[in-house]
Amino acid sequence: MSTDYYELPVNDTTWGVPGSFDTIFNWEYDEMRGRLVTLYQKGKQKQWDSETRLDWSINVEPGSPDNGPDYYIPIFGSPIWERMNDKEKEELRHHMGAWMNSQFLHGEQGALICTAKIVQAVPDIDSKFYAATQVMDEARHVETYSRYLREKIEMAYPINPFLKSLLDQVIQDSRWDFTYLGMQVMIEGLALAAFALIRDYSTEPLAKALNTYVMQDEARHVAFGRLALRDYYPQLTDAERAEREEFIVEASHLMYGRLMAREVWDHLGYDVDEAIDYVEHSEIMAQFRRLLFTRIVPIVKDIGLFGPKVKACFESLGVIDFQDLDPEAMSASDEQIAEEMDRRKAEIMEAVAVGVES
């Protein structure tokens, strides 16, 4: 995607992140764990082509309320929103859609790079096998969100500084489990919850299908990180576990803060302080931010990093109640919804074919 589509200047088209880690070879090719082998088989079987699985002929109106409920626009209901006319609200919807999908796109490239790193750095051969399937998934997601932004939204935003800061930490750290923790658990866990809001509440069919199919992949990715870390973290010392829990606390606050969309308010000429103050204190936005942790909290508990600091962090963010959710059940639901969408498409195509024949 050319930088011509960006609403804000992009001075450097590449971003180099320094780092070093050991590349691990493993000659024990038969050292395979059952659940990871099953996940690897599913990763191979569930590959798909966005060219054919998605209907790119669908017309998208970037400023339409069909793309998502207005109440999920961070300043919905604020004095700024109430002062807007219909044209200004349409413009804001367009920019919010561009900003949100741009962060999805940049996050997916981060996932592509992190998963390629996992293939090199993780010591287990079965993890290398599965991570290789995820590399292809992430390349497809980058391709798909890039095309959606370029052809349908016709606008993009640079990476949000909070997301960039988190990716910087995850990529630079030499330890393979930090890559899992930062990407597979924290970043992709939050992304899954954000994708679900579009899948479940948007009436724009292309965005709904796109996010449904991406979620089908991401459900496997999060399961991969959860299974690998759940096996590894009981081996840590108390000091090592404390370091990883500190990272969870820091990452949670970073992700909570990235939802302010400061770039959008500034670019559109709004009073940035007024907008940020509203977003920080709006009960609707507080609920929205809480929902984005529905996947993260139960997974962090499941992998055994649920010490006092982490619990205190989740309590302060108002998300501790999510600890009792079942991550496996949520992943299974994501897969079932995608499969049901495919079944409905097949039934429609069959009905059309019968109609043409008759």
Question: Could you explain how this protein is built, in words?
Answer:
With 358 residues, the protein is mostly helical. It has one domain (35-42, 67-357): Ferritin. 68% of the residues lie in helices and 0% in strands. It is built from 15 helices and no strands. The chain has helices spanning 34-45, 50-53, 79-83, 86-121, 125-153, 161-172, 176-201, 205-232, 238-257, 262-267, 272-281, 283-291, 296-302, 308-316, 327-357. Helix 8 (205-232) runs antiparallel to helix 15 (327-357) and helix 9 (238-257) runs parallel beside helix 14 (308-316). The longest helix has 36 residues, at 86-121. The radius of gyration is 21 Å and the shape is globular.
Give me some keywords for this one.
single chain, 358 residues, mainly alpha
**What is the number of strand segments?**
0
Uncertain residue ranges: none
Helix content: 55-70%
Can you tell me the number of structural domains? 1
How do the helices and strands follow one another from N- to C-terminus? HHHHHHHHHHHHHHH
Topology:
Layout: H1 34-45, H2 50-53, H3 79-83, H4 86-121, H5 125-153, H6 161-172, H7 176-201, H8 205-232, H9 238-257, H10 262-267, H11 272-281, H12 283-291, H13 296-302, H14 308-316, H15 327-357
Helix pairs in contact: 1-5, 1-8, 4-5, 4-6, 4-7, 5-8, 6-7, 6-9, 7-8, 7-9, 8-15, 9-14
Write a concise synopsis of the structure shown.
The chain has about 350 residues and is an all-alpha fold. The chain is built from 15 helices and no strands.
